[in-house]
Amino acid sequence: MRILVTVKFVPDLQSQRSFTEGAVTRTGDDGTMNELDENAVEAALQLKEAAGEGEVYALTVGGDDAVAAVRKALQLGVDHAVHVSDAAVAGSDVFGTAKVIAAAVEKINDEAPLDLVITGMAALDGLTSMLPTALAAELDWAQLTLASGLTVDGSTATIVRHLPDAHETVSASLPAVVSVTDEANKPRYPNFKLIMAARSKPVTTWTLADLGIAPESVGAGAARTVVVDASPRPPKEDRTVVTDTGEGGVALADFLIERGLA
Amino acid sequence: MSTVAVLVEAREGVVTQPTFEALTLARTLGTPVAVWIGEEPAAAEAASLGVYGAEEVRVVAVGDEARLPAKAAAALADATGDAAVVLMISNFVNKEVATRLALATGAGVVVDAAGAELVDGHVETMQTVFAATWNVRTRIATDKAIVGIRPNTTQAVPAETPGAAIVVGVAENLPEARETVVALEPVPAPEGVPLAEAPVVVSGGRGTNGDYTLVRELAELLGGAVGASRDATDEGWISHEHMVGQTGTTVTPALYVACGISGAVHHRGGMQASGTIVAVNIDPDAPIFEIADFGVVGDLGDVIPQAIARIKEVRGA
Ligand SMILES: Cc1cc2nc3c(=O)[nH]c(=O)nc-3n(C[C@H](O)[C@H](O)[C@H](O)COP(=O)(O)OP(=O)(O)OC[C@H]3O[C@@H](n4cnc5c(N)ncnc54)[C@H](O)[C@@H]3O)c2cc1C
Ligand SMILES: Nc1ncnc2c1ncn2[C@@H]1O[C@H](COP(=O)(O)O)[C@@H](O)[C@H]1O
After folding, report:
1. Residue A36 CA: which ligand 2 atom is closest?
2. Which of A132, A134, A108, A124 lies closest to A35 in space, CA to CA?
3. B15 plus B163 within the same structural domain
4. What phi and psi values does residue A242 have, to the nearest 5 degrees?
5. How far is A100 from chain B (nearest CA, A)?
């Protein structure tokens, strides 16, 4: 079983997240591997362990700091780490990012075929959930997205997909792109041994030239959407917190009635 | 005026409220046409789309086949070749459809939009991000634009002059897909208003201890839907469809009431853009109070029944 997991470097959810010149600020100590990508790493490690053989790659696309995302994946136990870093990638939209990831997947696939690419269901910075579909289309592989369960049997992958109107079971032949939800598994914690081992593991760094991608076909210039304004929302005024000393429910009701909400 | 296509969402054959919201928005961007993918619509449903301005109802009669995003996107591409803008309701499935449609047509996409307008011939969208702590305006630079619009962000208003709502069939030309739906287990339709489109949401978390009686009663009284935190759905106290948050349903009701919910960032990400936020929590330091317009520090078992009684009393008076 050969699996590649995509991991994104995002601002920590608990930090003060912000925009700089139309893009999410992704620098410094407040960045981390996207939390939902822990579920992707876990899914890959479990499949490898169940198969008793195989290799797991972690791949990230982003600036210098993004290497922290693949380092985290190494601590969790993946075998190889790849960081695609090139100034020309900055400002890419989902289609640019998918193009870059697809080229890296194909490069690894050319060395020895991959069975699966596993991604998180969403990056918790933009929350668009578009990359997995774009990547499957770009690779022309099957798309098995929003998996809350994943099994592989021979050359077929099957997922369970919980949609508001139905629970679907969807199958496809390998290779496939799978995105997993946070229901899919419980991510493991890195243990001391793996943390130590991860320190000395190499990270392969590729540029666009290594992937044969023309710089002008990705990045801000090729993006189909442009952030023209980003501003923090003013904090709410008129906030009230009362302590219930026997009349809290009445106060709550009166507030709703006054606002025309009850 | 250019054509603005709206992908219709129907539940058991009935057009949903967010579709009417999207049509209302479409009228400000051009000439609305509705695209219906699935079973043939009933005449009354097609007519209802006209009430909100649809000049045409384009039907791609492919039944259940369009469950796969690749097929739905192909059907939509066939029906929207002339459209400058394609609007759809922002949800997990439509994000996948939008992505495929964009790759097929070269369009730019924004999902989770809270509004859209034309500026110098380009579509610009408004969104909130980072758990609704930032406002973002995005320009779609391409000639063709795809926008996923969040329910409850536009008020549905019937058109002054109804659209003709002429039903036209679109030849279906669906490609083979690499995926197969091997089993389908329908989820029963929610009682009352679905979460994503409810004007009021009353949610219960771990603080309910598994008893949703009070939460349901208040929701019913206010004409709203019942929501939950992930801890509550993980406990099996209430089904997963009720989960509000970043990995559950994103809601933007006029009123959100959080009962016994701490306000973790994952939860806030799915509700912080709500109009008015009310919280009841026994812990004065619960983070939910940082974003609440009105908070009561107290036991929900005391506060909620008293609030219900008071509302009934005032209404009865
Ligand atoms: C990747 C990831 C994604 C996640 N996605 C989501 C998501 O989409 N949605 C989501 O909700 N969570 C999500 N979570 C979980 C989230 O981090 C929190 O754990 C969860 O929201 C907490 O639920 P809670 O507020 O019900 O429970 P708690 O945090 O335990 O809070 C319970 C609250 O109830 C109060 N309380 C107790 N008794 C009473 C009483 N009698 N009366 C009044 N108040 C009382 C307590 O003071 C406490 O503040 C996610 C987590 C991860 C890691
Ligand atoms: N720049 C990136 N590098 C690596 N993986 C990414 C990147 N962007 C998105 N992904 C993957 O795609 C998933 C969905 O992201 P998104 O579509 O941006 O919400 C994430 O959970 C990641 O696994």
Report:
1. 21
2. A124
3. yes
4. -115, 155
5. 15
- Residue B107 belongs to a domain: yes
Shared domain check, B251 and B139: no
Predicted TM-score (pTM) of this structure: 0.94
Of B132, B222, B305, the CB nearest to A249: B305
Name which residue sits closest to atom 27 of ligand 1, judged by CA.
Answer: B206
Contacts of A157 (CB under 8 A, 6+ apart): A116, A142, A144, A150, A151, A171, A172, A173, A174, A176, A178
| pLDDT, block means (10 residues), chain B with 317 residues | 95 94 98 96 97 98 90 96 97 96 97 96 92 88 97 95 97 91 90 89 98 97 96 94 92 96 93 94 96 97 98 92
In a shared domain, residues B16 and B156: yes
Residue B180 included in any domain: no
> Residue A215 contacts by C-beta under 8 Å, 6 or more apart in sequence?
A86, A88, A208
CATH number, domain of B132, equals: 3.40.50.620
**What interface predicted TM-score (ipTM) does this complex get?**
0.93
Point out which residues pair with B276 in neighbouring strands.
B255
Q: Are residues B138 and B244 in the same domain?
A: no
Is the domain of B207 the same as that of B297?
yes
Tokens of residue B11, six digits: 């539940």
Residue A2: phi and psi, rounded to 5, are -115, 120
- Which atom of ligand 2 lies at the shortest distance from residue A127's CA? 19
Domain that includes residue B55, residue range: 3-169
Q: Could you tell me if residue B126 is inside a domain?
A: yes
Kindly report the backbone phi and psi dihedral angles of residue B116, in degrees, each rounded to the nearest multiple of 5, phi listed first: -150, 145
Of B11, B137, B221, the CB nearest to A228: B137
C-alpha to C-alpha distances, A110 to A55, A60, A94, A170, nearest whole angstrom: 15, 19, 24, 27
- First and final CA of chain A: distance in angstroms? 57
The minimum CA-CA distance between B98 and chain A, rounded to whole Å, is 8
CA dist B45 and B62 (Å) reads: 18
Rg of chain A on CA atoms, in Å: 21
- Residues 6 or more apart whose CB falls under 8 angstroms from that of B17 comprise B151, B156, B197
Residue B128 C-alpha, separation from nearest chain A C-alpha, in angstroms: 9
* Best CA proximity match to A85, nearest among A104, A52, A62, A107: A62
Chain B within 8 Å of A257 (Cβ-Cβ)? Answer: yes
- Tell me the pLDDT of chain A averaged across its residues: 93
- Count of domains forming chain B: 2
CA-CA distance, B251 to B151, in Å (whole number)? 8
Does ligand 2 have an atom closer than 6 angstroms to the CB of A41?
Answer: no
pLDDT tens digits, residue range A7-19?
999 987 666 777 7
Average pLDDT over residues A102-123: 97
Residue B219 placed within a domain = yes
Q: Does A103 touch chain B (CB under 8 A)?
A: no
Domain range A2-222, CATH class: alpha beta
